[in-house]
Prior knowledge:
By secondary structure, the chain is α/β, with parallel strands linked by helices. It folds into 4 domains: 2-54, no CATH class; 70-138 and 353-463 and 470-531, Rossmann fold (3-Layer(aba) Sandwich), CATH 3.40.50.740; 144-338 and 540-565, Dimethylsulfoxide Reductase, domain 2 (3-Layer(aba) Sandwich), CATH 3.40.228; 572-701, Barwin-like endoglucanases (Beta Barrel). It has a 7-stranded mixed sheet with strand order 5-4-19-18-17-6-7, with helices on one face. It has a 6-stranded mixed β-barrel with strand order 25-29-26-28-27-30. A 4-stranded parallel sheet has the order 11-10-9-13, sandwiched between helices. A hairpin with a 4-residue loop joins strand 27 (623-627) and strand 28 (632-639). The longest helix is centred in the N-terminal third of the chain and has 19 residues, at 82-100. The radius of gyration is 25 Å and the shape is globular. The N and C termini lie far apart (57 Å). The mean pLDDT is 95.
Amino acid sequence: MTRTLHHRACHLCEAICGLSIEVERQADGSQRILSIKGDAEDPFSRGHICPKAVALQDIQDDPDRLRQPLRRHGDSWQPIAWAEAFELVAERLADIQRRHGANAVAVYQGNPSVHNYGLMTHSNYFLGLLKTRNRYSATSVDQLPHHLISHLMYGHGLLIPIPDIDHTDFMLILGANPLVSNGSIMTVPDVARRLKALRARGGRLVVVDPRRSETAAVADRHLFIRPGEDAALLLGMLHTLFAEGLTRPTPLPVSGLDAVREAIAPFDSEAMSRRCGVSAGEIRQLARDFAAAERAVCYGRMGISTQPFGSLCQWLVQLINLVTGNLDREGGALCTLPAVDLVASTSGGHYARWRSRVSGLPEFAGELPVAALAEEILTPGEGQVRALVSVAGNPVLSTPNGRQLERALAGLEFMVSIDFYHNETTRHAELILPPTAPLEHDHYDTSFNLLAVRNVTRFNEALLDKPEGALHDWEIFVALARAFASRTGAELKPTLPPEQLIDLGLRHGPYGERSEHRLSLAVLREHPHGLDLGPLRPNLAGRLKTPDGRVQAAPEPLLADLQRFAAQPAPEAGALLLIGRRHPRSNNSWMHNYRRLVKGKPRHQLLMHPEDLARRGLVDGQRVRVRSRVGEVEVDVAASEEMMPGVVSLPHGWGHDRAGVRLAIARAQPGVSANDLTDERRLDALSGNAALNGIPVEVEAA
Length: 702
């Protein structure tokens, strides 16, 4: 038996922490993981590790993980050969498209897609051949407003300014909890140490959230805000900045600031206070403090994206950074310059070139909002979706009104899932095609290096042997493409393995052959701990992709959306509003079958302020019924003074007790799916992103 120490990064969340993993090869040739620890030599994460990284061993050893392709026969599943499975997929999809048109086949790609470079490089090799407009992903239940605003203001949906957390003096966070998420649309391992350093150098941290989250608990100041009304606070701040002459010039080329000033004139702090529940004085003081800081940054994430004015919120965040001179400035919001630069190598995207058949929701970058998927399946007529390809996703638990989607999936003519679990979604498939596990393939992070608070790069070698007969996800997509092209006569271009594509990206990137770094895959293999390419620097002016080369401060769709915001009726008095929350041991529904992550105190409960409990005659620990427009669930309630009165919180991704789910550990956990309550009709009208926060609910004894 031999023991070896390997270095790679964890890619189960956005932190991409470096790991040191000890592996033992036994006499029979098999491998066993002995330990997983933080890599102290990783220049980015500096030894930081969270529970999700340690759970990589649970994924590898999980007896419920599928290791061969399966075909469903009624309620049972039987193994099927890879070649036969590929031919069956090609036959069924080609036949459905021949009879009903290309759009009769839909595609859904889940959150893990961006955590796996084989999916990033090769999924479209097959999916692109389908030529369907019915493409969906987890983007529209998460971050679509970020991409839309970057597209409209900066000309590219991936050109997203990131908080320069290591150099700022004042950080304003809205609807984000980086102490738990390790950053989100902000790749920031060891965020606790970074926030502590911010305060040690005399900086301030202010958090705005309807819950006193883990991050809010360590902030210099926490402000409760009515869910769904963050735009009111941001408008009040922006109005104050203009009205009190607190703006600063920017070296960036900008057009439209006069139009912004005129458009927000009616939204003063007094009027906005009535909307958001934060006093007018606090709104004005927050604007003054932000403007007075030498270097400040405003950052808004999940909580302000997943609401009816998510795009408006993200636009206002960008404007506050811009007009105070903190956009493209050290200590403010800066864009990365990653080693594999997707901004330079891809188009800026497009918006509203077509719309969904039933509700007319706009596409962005070729995808429709996933809130429309169920109705596109259930509504008869030309263009009705009759087949689905799901990739690394569980939309029954992660998209609004999951019960409706569940009913829709049950009526499909055909469904194939590229996944290694029988979950709440894949149980409806006729075929499940499981790829190799994370430690069995190599990896390069194209997505999260693009969002990192430093410019970093590393290549992660496969840690464990590829099992005999197994296929990597990219190999599955190549084989599906060949089978489909052979059956349909579609043109199929040659392709390269993912690592060769990454090598080309590195060589032609900003640190490649023409730079002093001369990066290539060979160079990265010589540096298994990764390379630090330096802090973020101002670069937005040279990276803008807008037609006139200027920041577009006043995109017409946003000016129009201000009128929708102004016309929004006031919240109903006494109504309870539901928000979500996450936990360090939880990263969406696919992390609930691992003992290391589900152990500890229960965290499935509905959190509710004691005053709201007493008003309804309820007590801590009681079983309650929570009801919304679309459904109801029963769950235990927990009294919590961290909640704003009038707001309740339920975590996402639980509720694994549906028939046909083969996840033994997850099924044994209590909890319900919050998306049995969220409403597919509640959307950010501009982007189509699901409004998962601020759902009106009723709570009563079960």
